[in-house]
Amino acid sequence: MNVPSPGHGPPAAGEVILGVDTHRDVHVAVALSTIGVVMGTASIPATAVGYRGLWEWASRLGTVHRAGVEGSGSYGAALSRYLLARRVEVFEVNRPDRSVRRRRGKSDLVDAQEAARAVLSGRLRKSFGGLITELMLCLSPSDVRGGEVSP
């Protein structure tokens, strides 16, 4: 796990919004304040230990109620389940549109930050709830990562 960056934001207080760009082996996360200031960044392994580290890191920055996860139905499914189990509202966020990528370039950090900003601004693609949430909480990480069950 890479050492999380504290960012240049104000000291921890209140809610932080997580944005996560997910990949098979490593997820990149950004924590934003409710006014859009980057509180910090982190790269974590896509494992239970990594999710726990992400949760502990983000919780030190503030209270996590909402998270935007890119790829929450595939590489981010296990992380989404982890966050849902902690009563975090998880939003599926599509990758940033081409205009953002042209302006800011393609990077996992940019994608994670855009995921958090999508939650903050309300321009969301869909949120998890109801039956989908219950099914995701029932699936084990090996079901998802082993390809036995398609979330």
Brief write-up:
The chain is of the alpha/beta class and 151 residues long. The protein has helices spanning 48-61, 77-85, 98-104, 108-121, 130-138, 141-145, and strands at residues 15-21, 26-33, 38-45, 63-70, 89-92, 126-127. The chain has one domain: ATPase, nucleotide binding domain (Nucleotidyltransferase, domain 5, 2-Layer Sandwich).
- The overall strand count is 6
Strand content range: 15-25%
Q: Count of DSSP helices? A: 6
Order of helices and strands: EEEHEHEHHEHH
The CATH superfamily label reads ATPase, nucleotide binding domain
How do the strands of the widest beta sheet line up side by side? 3-2-1-4-5-6
Helix content: 25-40%
As for the number of domains, it is 1
Q: Which radius of gyration do the C-alpha atoms yield?
A: 14 Å
CATH class: Alpha Beta
Major sheet summary line: 6 strands, mixed
Stated plainly, the CATH topology is called Nucleotidyltransferase, domain 5
What is the averaged pLDDT score? 79
Counting helices, strands and paired strands, the structural category is alpha/beta
State the shape. globular
Low-confidence stretches: 6-12, 143-151
